[in-house]
Amino acid sequence: MQAAAAVHRPHLLAASPLGGRASRRPSTVRMALREDGPSVAIVGATGAVGQEFLRVITARDFPYRSLRLLASERSAGKRIDFEGRDYTVQDLAAPGAFDGVDIALFSAGGSISRAHAPAAVASGAVVVDNSSAYRMDPDVPLVIPEVNPEAMADVRLGKGAIVANPNCSTIICLMAVTPLHRHAKVKRMVVSTYQAASGAGAAAMEELKLQTREVLEGKPPTCNIFSQQVITSIPCAHVELISYCHKTCLIYFSFCSMLLIYFRIMHLLLKMAIMRKR
């Protein structure tokens, strides 16, 4: 019965209007869970984005009947107090980690999404992926709710699906440009983006603070996460991350990939407009 009820709650996936309800204070205690709300899991709950997910759930008073916090085996067992309740972080690789989950918010990086999102989908969860893993997958809707919510029209709770979102720079850009494009057709754009260290995760932000202190004290900066000094320098090329004996690119979302994702979303909008006219 619960699974059947979950399928008939598409309103929970609808975009909230801009400037909607007032934010709740972070200290707010949720007096009761919503029996008609979805079961929510957060993958990467101990990371910077996972913690932001929790803050947004509180600020928007998002209705949920249960909350499951998932992370790597290394973080499993940690305790997190949220909205007056004590949660134990669970291992996302454990059998049944996504059983009974309606919505799984992924914020642990592309490799984690590729490895574990299929298991969540197989359990019937709608995966909202915050990484780059599925952004260019033609079978996965790439959605900015204020721009192309129609792209996830076929997504239903309880049916299992993946919804990808673009990089933050693209989201901000398209929210401003799309209304102009719809009314006047944008022919040319000049875009400059400045990527934050937070894009590399909580450990990178800690190293940035450490580098700041070391540079001010005249010491050589620590470079365990970043491959070079980041503070007080403005690199003109990609800064690499050093991780698990291999290197990955910090600024993985280049201008070219931003354009690709921009055109993928605009192509979807154009296709929908043509279909509506027929």
Automatic annotation (TrEMBL):
Any Pfam family: Semialdhyde_dh
Domain Semialdehyde dehydrogenase NAD-binding as annotated: residue spans: 39-155
The organism's place on the tree of life at top rank: Eukaryota
Residues annotated as transmembrane: 250-270
Alphabetized GO MF terms: NAD binding; oxidoreductase activity, acting on the aldehyde or oxo group of donors, NAD or NADP as acceptor; protein dimerization activity
Record keyword Transmembrane helix present: yes
Keywords assigned by UniProt, alphabetized: Membrane, Transmembrane, Transmembrane helix
SUPFAM superfamilies: NAD(P)-binding Rossmann-fold domains
Gene Ontology BP terms: alpha-amino acid biosynthetic process
InterPro entries: NAD(P)-bd_dom_sf (IPR036291), Semialdehyde_DH_NAD-bd (IPR000534), Semialdhyde_DH_dimer_dom (IPR012280)
S-adenosyl-L-methionine among keywords: no
Gene3D superfamilies xrefs: NAD(P)-binding Rossmann-like Domain
PANTHER family registered for this protein in UniProt: ASPARTATE-SEMIALDEHYDE DEHYDROGENASE, DEHYDROGENASE, PUTATIVE-RELATED
Annotated family: Belongs to the aspartate-semialdehyde dehydrogenase family.
Protein name (record): Semialdehyde dehydrogenase NAD-binding domain-containing protein
Record organism: Triticum urartu (Red wild einkorn)
